[in-house]
Amino acid sequence: LSGGVGVDRVPGLGHSGGGSTLLGYIGIDTIIEQMRKKTMKAGFDFNIMIVGHSGLGKSTLVNTLFKSQVSRWSSGWGGEHKIPKTVEIKAVSHVIEEGGVKMKLTVIDTPGFGDQINNENCWDPISKYINEQYEKFLKEEVNIARKKRIPDTRVHCCLYFISPTGHSLRQLDIEFMKHLSRVVNIIPVIAKSDTMTPDEKNEFKHRVRKELETYGIEYYPQNEFDDDMEDKNENDKIREAMPFAVVGSDKEYQVNGKRVLGRKTAWGVVEVENPNHCEFALLRDFLIRSHLQDLKEVTHNIHYETYRARRLNDNGGLHPISVNNTQESNL
């Protein structure tokens, strides 16, 4: 292999006998295929948290995103649908397989958030849960005999559901995103956007972006994490479209001879996957097709590393392993 040129045949390799050859393309770009095979065998984890008060269609939207029954209600929880007295954390894991690729999807729901008369510090249980997952990963990582593959329960993405009021963000929305944007990738979405006219929706989106900028709230994808101009140009378009105005539905209707997911109204069917009706397709492509791996990398390289550095520098944190306690001390 010289000058980066791949060859189709390497003579002299194979069984002893002189005439055998190993056929097939050989080049350094074959490492991509090797990585793909290893990833397909191992599979990967993706953990998504959904936050917002009751009635915004959080579970329905997640079911629509992954075209599977992955919400907590689908898993037999909360038969009476009572509002919890405090914010609870409910996590459900499913293995989704498509095209030979396995993904362990964990949906973390937060029933009770924003549903109380007094919502002071109601984000604390959520912040605690996120940090507990970082702590769990860190403890596994610093073990002397650590696992070959550490289970990843860290929250890679938090979908924050904004009520379609058409006015402005609630104080609870602002405080939540202020506190949590430092520790997790937040993606704001406007729920049930079919309750607004197109003009109201665009005006509301513009007002929300202005408020997020005014209060210094960063949401994913953050400007400082753009690696190059290509990433910046792509992410700028996404940032201009945020917050995504979405509609979720797990019901199908017949429209122009096709079965489509949608919400039936007196005026017709709101098609979930039609870009002219809502931005669900844009959110799905962004979340799954183009940025899923980046969400995982930002979680590991930015949010987790920030937590790890703080914990290891903290006086009451994890103490580094002494060299005297290892067999390498005699080297």
What does this structure look like?
The protein is of the alpha/beta class. The protein has a domain at 36-51 and 62-71 and 86-108 and 129-141 and 150-313: P-loop containing nucleotide triphosphate hydrolases (Rossmann fold). 34% of the residues lie in helices and 19% in strands. It has helices at residues 31-42, 58-66, 124-142, 171-180, 198-214, 229-241, 280-290, 292-313, and strands at residues 7-10, 22-26, 44-51, 90-98, 101-109, 157-162, 186-190, 244-245, 252-255, 258-265, 268-271. The strands form three sheets. It has a six-stranded mixed sheet with strand order 4-5-3-6-7-8, sandwiched between helices. Helix 7 (280-290) crosses helix 8. The longest helix is centred in the last third of the chain and has 22 residues, at 292-313. The two termini are 39 Å apart. InterPro entries: G_SEPTIN_dom (IPR030379), P-loop_NTPase (IPR027417), Septin (IPR016491), Septin3 (IPR008114).
Radius of gyration: 24 Å
CATH architecture of the domain at 36-51 and 62-71 and 86-108 and 129-141 and 150-313: 3-Layer(aba) Sandwich
What is the beta-strand fraction?
15-25%
Q: Looking at CATH, which topology of the domain at 36-51 and 62-71 and 86-108 and 129-141 and 150-313 would you report?
A: Rossmann fold
The first-level CATH class name of the domain at 36-51 and 62-71 and 86-108 and 129-141 and 150-313? Alpha Beta
Helix-strand category: alpha/beta
Share in helix: 25-40%
